[in-house]
Design a protein that fits this description.
- The protein is α/β, with parallel strands linked by helices.
- Helices cover about 20% and strands about 25% of the residues.
- It is built from 3 helices and 6 strands, in the order E-E-E-E-H-E-H-E-H.
- A 3-stranded antiparallel sheet has the order 1-2-3, with no helix packed on it.
- It is globular and about 50 Å long.
């Protein structure tokens, strides 16, 4: 039986592996692994977290941003398409989805996208510069 290496909390997510267990603490956005004493080989054969680029649009042009040098999505998926993706990620054992982009809050349906990830059993982190995020909009997120 494993203890919770991040501190006992019912909000933590766990994923059993052949070699032990992975724990995720959504409040601290931290992962931890516990390894069985009799295991010498540790192999993770599927992701524990997924970066989901939900938009290429942004309200800034920061010199340090990876979006300036890398290809951001040139196709915008609907909230319904993201819902299907989240169900697949969750079934695969992914524990956390990082909604990113460009500037995620430029999408009016971002709360719906986040809700579908949560409803699929994923923990959600939303990466934003926060410039256009209002108190009213924050209240729409799960």
């Amino acid at each position: 039986m494993f203890s919770d290496p991040l501190g006992s909390n019912p909000d933590h997510s766990f994923r059993e592996e052949a070699w032990g267990r992975v724990t995720y603490d959504p409040e601290r956005d931290a992962f931890a692994a516990e390894v069985c004493l009799d295991r010498t080989e540790i192999s993770i054969d599927r992701p524990i977290s997924a970066g989901c680029l939900v938009t290429a649009g942004c309200n800034l042009r920061c010199a340090f941003c990876y979006g300036n040098d890398e290809s951001l999505p040139n196709v915008t998926l609907s909230a319904r398409e993201w819902e299907q993706i989240f169900r697949h990620l969750s079934a695969w054992g992914v524990m956390r989805a990082d909604l990113s982009g460009g500037e995620t809050t430029m999408r009016n349906d971002l709360p719906d996208i986040a809700r579908s990830a949560v409803n699929s059993g994923l923990n959600v982190v939303i990466s934003t510069n926060g410039l256009i995020l209002t108190d009213d909009a924050v209240g729409r997120f799960p």
